[in-house]
Amino acid sequence: MSSGNHQHSQKLNKPAFTEKQAADLVERRFGLKVSGISLLPSYDDQNFHVHVSRHEVNGSCTKEYVLKITNWEESQNLKLIEVQTQVMIFLNAEGFPSATPYFTKDGDIMCLESIDTDCTTKSYMVRLLTYLPGRTVATISANPPILYEIGKLAAQLDKVLAEKFHHPSVQSLHRGEFIWNLANIPLLEKYIHALGQNRHREVVAHVIQQFKDRVVPKLSTFRACINHGDLNDHNILVDSTAVSSERPQIRVSGILDFNDMSYGYYVFEVAIAIMYMMIESKDPLSVGGHVLAGFESIVPLTTEERDALFPLVSGRFAQSLVLAAYTTLMYPENEEYLMITARTGWKHLVQMYELGQQAVEKIWFDTAKTYLCNEFV
């Protein structure tokens, strides 16, 4: 949901393949007979849910895939896309519920596909990924045990990548001016005009200044790692396993969308997870403590990292809300998808702003502290 380099948003090049073109692509490049295909919601890439005929799967029981066509701009960075895909393969091998690529007929994990657009020919990077079952967290009532597990998953993911993932192109994850990296909150000043002159702009300006004052001077003290960068309520899938009819057990069944991966810090990942888990919650301020407790069961935060948590969560709200407003100005036809976070996000950010850091942190930290005794784990 949060992919894209908004430094060049004026030339945002989202693919525009028809369902027929996508189906032909799957058959021609991957050798699979498509029995059904439908477009999935997306930010600046294009995704299709693909059904293939049973006899074409070469003995595998998998019959559903996601065809992912990367936007033109990011398709130029082959090393970055390769690393993102190799991370998915690595995490799947480590036991994480991550999709894996279906190889092309030439034995590659991805391929470039050219298409004529507006009298020009553009090439897009294409991958066919395994389809993961489950419902998005956005469609369920995320109770404390689920929130705890999501926090724990976020920490486990970052930790295993930091300790065990190696690839010749891993340096491509140092993405510098990437707008969605939490270190780049000040870059929002380029897009804040999209909000107009109102209360929302005032709050965002405060968030940016707070980030400059309280986070930037301490960045060098945070522990670095590779971040997924977009563990939102639409990128985490869950399913239920019936332990008993009275007590069904919910587990994470899928981690989606690795487009926003970049080098960052452990505290970035937990802040991003907290922010997105707040979106649909009936009690958003309580969310942070449960997610934090799960995260700290694997990676306890330092004092400096905990002090930065509030401005980082606020900063992620600001990133999502400002960039959604900015992109909607250019692409009003995609407003429904772009403004998903804004439906409740502004209310949550303004509430945090009005309560202040000390009051919100007390709720989070007091809740997290209860897990040290006897809670939902």
Describe this structure in words.
- By secondary structure, this protein is of the alpha+beta class.
- The chain folds into 2 domains: 15-130, Phosphorylase Kinase, domain 1, CATH 3.30.200; 135-370, Aminoglycoside 3'-phosphotransferase, Chain: A, domain 2 (Alpha-Beta Complex), CATH 3.90.1200.10.
- 41% of the residues lie in helices and 17% in strands.
- It has 12 helices and 11 strands.
- The strands form 3 sheets. Strands 1, 2, 3, 4, 5 and 6 form a 6-stranded antiparallel sheet that branches. Strands 7-9-10 form a 3-stranded antiparallel sheet, covered by helices on one side. Strands 8-11 form a two-stranded antiparallel ribbon.
- It is globular, with a radius of gyration of 21 Å.
- It starts with 18 loop residues before the first helix and ends in a 7-residue tail after the last helix.
- Mean pLDDT is 89; it is low at 1-11.
Sheet/helix structural class = alpha+beta
Number of domains: 2
Number of strands: 11
Mean pLDDT: 89
- Residue stretches low in confidence (pLDDT < 50, at least 5 long) are 1-11
Q: Give the helix proportion (percent range).
A: 40-55%
CATH class wording of the largest domain: Alpha Beta
What is the correct CATH architecture of the largest domain? Answer: Alpha-Beta Complex
Main location: cytoplasm
Enzyme class: transferase
Subcellular location: Cytoplasm
Protein name: Hydroxylysine kinase
List the helices and strands and how they pair.
Elements: H1 19-30, E1 34-40, E2 46-52, E3 64-69, H2 72-75, H3 78-93, E4 101-102, E5 111-117, E6 120-130, E7 135-136, H4 144-164, H5 199-214, E8 224-227, E9 236-242, E10 248-255, E11 262-265, H6 266-278, H7 284-296, H8 303-307, H9 309-330, H10 335-338, H11 342-355, H12 357-370
Antiparallel strand pairs: 1-2, 2-3, 3-6, 4-6, 5-6, 7-9, 8-11, 9-10
Helix pairs in contact: 4-6, 4-7, 5-9, 6-7, 6-9, 7-12, 9-11
